[in-house]
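Predicting holo structure, NAP bound.
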Amino acid sequence: MDDFSNVKAFAEKVNADIPELHAVILNAGLMNRGWSTTREGWEQTLQVNTISTTLLALLLLPKLLSSGGPKNPAHLNFISSGTARVVKPEKVRQFYDSPNALQAMSSEKAWLGGMGHYALSKLLLEYAMRHIATLPSVVSASGEPNVIVNSTCPGLCKTDLGRQYTDKSMLFRILAWIVGVLIIRSAEAGSRLYVSAITRGKASQGKMWKDDRYVDGGEMVESAQGKRFGEKVWKEMVDVMESIEPRIRPTLSES
Ligand SMILES: NC(=O)c1ccc[n+]([C@@H]2O[C@H](COP(=O)([O-])OP(=O)(O)OC[C@H]3O[C@@H](n4cnc5c(N)ncnc54)[C@H](OP(=O)(O)O)[C@@H]3O)[C@@H](O)[C@H]2O)c1
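Done. Tokens:
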């Protein structure tokens, strides 16, 4: 997922080998400790968690559309994070008028720290998910979804997401153990939310599923300024993705 050619090759294989596709869960994600870039020059968290994930969704969308339809829609689920809901406007305000916000947010001077950039990557993913959920190809003229598009936050789960955070002090270990006992779920418990997300109906279109309920997207998704920023970022993402794979153009425009 940190190499666009791999994403394209994987999607091509799925599209060629699998006759019908009824559910896609886009799970890959990482939280980096420091700023680093991919071969293609993007900050790695933004490429893996946001751009590649969205590109893969768009490359698989035609197969989901042809496998389902309004009577029995297929499901497209983005594994997001509740951290997207708490990104503060002051963290991103400087990019509102940036000629290329996506690139600017990828630069070293924009690095918000591991957790900060992780949350930002998931916020941008929420923008993409919400836009894909309203594409003319995804929603029929009657308003019924041809594909149910939503996101999931699995909650705090015991996984390898923090794999780069290894040099922990004794105090950190004790605190982590207490938090672990009190609130961290097993990966299996988190994964059940993935499964329940892909059994949701049309009421879940464009929404985040968390703790067995829909939650709002937070200030940077729901406010007027957040929506404006989301529009801008989505347009930029579309330009980037079309330059990587022009064949996604019809998926973005056709009804
Ligand atoms: N754990 C939590 O508390 C939590 C909370 C909210 C959301 N999430 C989200 O849940 C999803 C799964 O994460 P996790 O918690 O299960 O963490 P994890 O154990 O680290 O799993 C991450 C998964 O993403 C894959 N991945 C990472 N970088 C990749 C890359 N460049 N290309 C392809 N695959 C890559 C990993 O593959 P490899 O193992 O092969 O590297 C692994 O399968 C992520 O999207 C994460 O943001 C997790």
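The radius of gyration is 18 Å.
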